[in-house]
Amino acid sequence: MANFIDRRLNSKNKSTVNRQRFLRRYKNQIKKSVSEAINQRGVTDIDSGENIIIPKKDLSEPTFHQGQGGIKDRVHPGNDQFTTGDRIPRPPKKQGQGAGEGDASDSGEGEDEFTFSISKEEYLNLLFEDLELPNLERNQLDKLIEYKTVRSGFCAEGVASNIDIVKSLQGSIARRIAMTASKRKKLKVLEEALLALNNDKHDNIQQQRDLIAEIDNIKGKIAKVPFIDTFDLQFRNYAKQAVPTSKAVMFCLMDVSGSMDQATKEMAKRFYILLYLFLSRTYKNIDVVYIRHHTQAKEVNEHEFFYSQETGGTIASSALELMNNIITERYNDNQWNIYGAQASDGDNWADDSPQCKAILEQQILPKSRYFSYIEITQRAHQTLWKHYQEVEESHANFAMQHIKSVADIYPVFRELFKKNTQSAA
Amino acid sequence: MTNKNNTAETIKKTKVTPLDDTPDWTFDLLGQYQHEIARVADFYRLDTYTNQIEVITAEQMMDAYASVGMPIGYSHWTFGKKFIQTEQNYKRGQMGLAYEIVINSSPCISYLMEENTLTMQALVMAHACYGHNSFFKGNYLFKSWTDASSIIDYLLFAKNYIAQCEQKYGISEVESTLDACHALMSHGVDRYKRPQKISLDEELKRQSERAEYLQSQVNALWRTVPKKEQQENEKKYIFPKEPQENILYFIEKNAPLLQPWQREIVRIVRKISQYFYPQKQTQVMNEGWACFWHYTILNHLYDEGLVTDKFMLEFLHSHTNVVAQPEYNSKYYSGINPYALGFNMFIDIRRICEHPTEEDKEYFPEIAGSNWVDTVHFAMENFKDESFISQYLSPKLIRDFKLFHIHDDSDNNYVEIGAIHNEQGYKKVRHNLANQYNLSNIEVNIQIVDANIDGDRALTLRYTPHNDVELGDSKDEVLKHLHYLWHFDVKIIQETKSGEDKIIASCPQKSKDD
């Protein structure tokens, strides 16, 4: 006795709930894994999900089980060389002769971590949970607006290039029909009368002649109605519509003077990646401009930015100036959301710091959505930090944080962008 | 082919047209095969629950995997973890999915995977729907520990109850409770008592009153005010009076500060643990029985001319993969394959019945030459792995498997070969192999000995080592879970060689004062 049931069309993903439960429970480990994975990425690589790695021991569910020591008797198959009483020296690691049973996999190493994938969405959500773009709402109203020209019907005036031919000719036909309607009606009557006269057996020469003259007259009038008139012309009308822009430009400014070593740059890189990922959640198109500087600033590509070596002193204002120039040239602040992120070890030529402050306050900050400064150093703060601190006090869209080690980056990033940034003046 | 049956031969003479052997299955063809398999199964007196055969996709199979074979599981992260693991392994091609999953219920639910070929579906039907199914219905452990007719209802009840609790008390609370219960799951069974069967009606009827009643009982117990004078006479009133091996049961009934809903969850986990308990003890037998029957039934169909050579070749290919036993030094070796051992033992029993050798007559006087169908049925019904092996493992099979015994005493810096497949070794090998499947050797012996209800309510467990094996490292983690349920101090003691009790693990958190 048996019944067959076709369940194939039943819902799959019975385990979805359980998967969510799993993600929920291991949120902390997953987040840690996510933030570690940042290191492996290029700044603009955001299309992929992420492999999450959790140490197996964190996942294990403990039970009482037997441990080591004592006497163990095991039976194995395939004896090919042993006889009763043989003694085999114990292999250096415990349990040489096959694992018998239990969880230990004897297939070698590489099983001590639990790896699985999460989707891009899940990845970004985890990465940026509880974060928001600073000041976004306020600025979107007054500043972040870009105008887009859209068609909005037709109008009677305009430039010749905007003439809509179909619409104009439609107007022309209508006008011509309207202007000739009564004449055509009269013409029809006359032509019928003429036909009647022609069919008449009597001669009506004079009447015919009059009629013909009249018909010609009317035909002439009809012909005189112009084929097209300025009155007919229709021009395509355009209106400007406000749309919030989805373009953003992100300036990465980094000190590459001799005092910045590769490890410091890697830390800065992680910060930029985070910022890029974060912005990409809100903006469709993001340009990234890399500016490196020692005593002079230079715009470079990503690879050069992170990996080429430079030596020399530091004048931070050169980078800010270059950034300002690039904004003026290429990124109109009416159309672009401008974000700046500066990373430095805090070294700067002392006399230059007031200048940095001035450029920031007068040029860059008024145009930017947000400018963040991170100082990656183990040492005490120097003049640049002090001047920037003054900027921070007076500007809501400027933020600065101090990073000591890699582990600080993610918390600092969260600190910079956490929801409900302290309400600025 | 092994021995032909008289009936099979008579049928073969009348010309039969073989069943269709195209690779792609249809429900029609499944029905035809099912019909023939059922007929043969009946011929061999396989008594089964009604079959409910469900065709599912690979994805659904992974879902089923993740819920450890429970058709309806409550929500918990550990099933999510299993699902992710399965999915990863499957996607990377590290594992194929099982061809079937079968559930001990009435009607007996078997899942067939859509991707299987027609031959595979026939194999699976013979294996699961008649092999496992008849085992569930006939084996004494399943008969006494599980009630197939109510398990689905009970699981549904459990799922809904836990979902309700999550709504009422929050996911995190429920999750912690479940975690704690899972850690103690294998200590939720009375090994030496026959349990009551799970019956849904009863559960529902009694659930709410039980909750209240239990709570009142617990309160009564803890209200006992100790009288100081009496205390001197006898360190009196040890509770529990006898050591308790069923930790979850003890918690459910006696934990002082557990919420009623938590007690119910403890009970649910305990009941589910009980449901799986027979399966743990009959892995070799159960799989061996199912393999034996798919092999026997399909060969019977072949002898009747109902299935073609092509069908048989594909079937045998899968069959030999399943019952292969890698040797100890093979890189594929991961212990003894229960399918291989079980299948060969049943085949061997049949051989002893039909063609006994002198050796068999000496070792198995009572079955040599008997009716094999009777004998295998008797073996299936009345044994578990441990006793099955010690009863039926024949010298021939020990030789065929080249079994050898390793004695590993951690005091020595060598391991010793205790016995091999020779005349002197047979009994020792058999004895040791049987012990390997003895749950009381595999699972740790840990029992609640004192709850100190007159004092600080500290719970004491005693670990009694088997063969001096230490308790595994995770004991501290498990104690945290136990502490979560008990709310007061918990500790594990073990008797040292000098005869004193030593605390080997404890979970000392500040106990709250009420």
Characterize the structure shown.
With 425 residues, chain A is of the alpha/beta class. Chain A has three domains: 17-57 and 112-127, no CATH class; 136-144 and 245-417, 3-Layer(aba) Sandwich (Rossmann fold), CATH 3.40.50.410; 160-237. In chain A, 41% of the residues lie in helices and 21% in strands. Chain A has 13 helices and 13 strands. A six-stranded mixed beta sheet of chain A has the order 10-9-8-11-12-13, sandwiched between helices. In chain A, helix 8 (262-280) packs parallel to helix 13 (406-417) and helix 10 runs parallel beside helix 11. The radius of gyration of chain A is 40 Å and the shape is elongated. The two termini of chain A are 80 Å apart. Residues 94-111, 137-143 and 420-425 of chain A have low confidence and may be disordered. Chain B is α/β, with parallel strands linked by helices and 514 residues long. In chain B, the strands form three sheets. A four-stranded mixed beta sheet of chain B has the order 6-7-8-9. Chain B has a three-stranded mixed beta sheet with strand order 1-3-2. Chain B has helices spanning 6-13, 27-43, 58-66, 77-91, 118-138, 140-145, 151-169, 171-183, 200-223, 228-233, 247-254, 260-281, 283-303, 309-322, 338-354, 358-363, 372-382, 385-392, 395-401, 426-436, 439-442, 475-486, and strands spanning 51-56, 100-103, 108-113, 404-409, 414-419, 445-450, 459-464, 490-495, 501-507. In chain B, 54% of the residues lie in helices and 10% in strands. The chains are: A alpha/beta (425), B alpha/beta (514). At the A-B interface, strand 1, helix 1, strand 3, strand 4 and strand 5 of A face helix 2, strand 1, helix 3, helix 4 and helix 8 of B.
